[in-house]
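Sample intake sheet
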Amino acid sequence: MAVSAAALVVPLRAFAVGMERLADRLDPDARAALARRLADTVLDAGRGLPTVVVSSAPEVVEWARARDVDVIDDPGSLDTAAEVGRRWARDAGLQRVIVAHADLPDARSFDALTRDGGIGILCLVPDHRCDGTPVLSTPTDVDIRFAYGPGSFARHCREARRLGLGLRVVRAPELAFDVDLPSDLDRLASRTA
């Protein structure tokens, strides 16, 4: 097996209390089952890459370990989770880190985000609304300020300029569709009906 120059980081707060914006539509058990199914899809897409899940939730830690994936304690926010993942990849001697949200039902591969290696390019996948950043990759030796949340795609573009990095935007529908809102749940359900 070839040695990878990239790692995958999947921040995942919890299954049981995750996907809170869907609480009006799904009870906690249904949200937990959906979150786990989507997270399985993301880890499957990263098969072959050194991978770490960032979480402190016991059910997520148990799930990740059962999948033979490393786990780092969640430091408290998505931005800091991405940062500890970046440092994990850097300390492992890897040139690039891919940070992927765990709610990507169509993820099949992260190959489009590995090709830049250690080159000073920030690679961004905007979400299907062109607002958020469900997937990004960066060289591990760059101290990027992760800036997740609404409007994160624009903030990450500005961060690339601030750092003097090249910017590559990957318009990949299979990585752009994330399940955040009830309308996303409707879209997901319409495809499986």
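Comment: The CA atoms of residues 96 and 112 lie 12 Å apart. The chain has one domain: 6-192.
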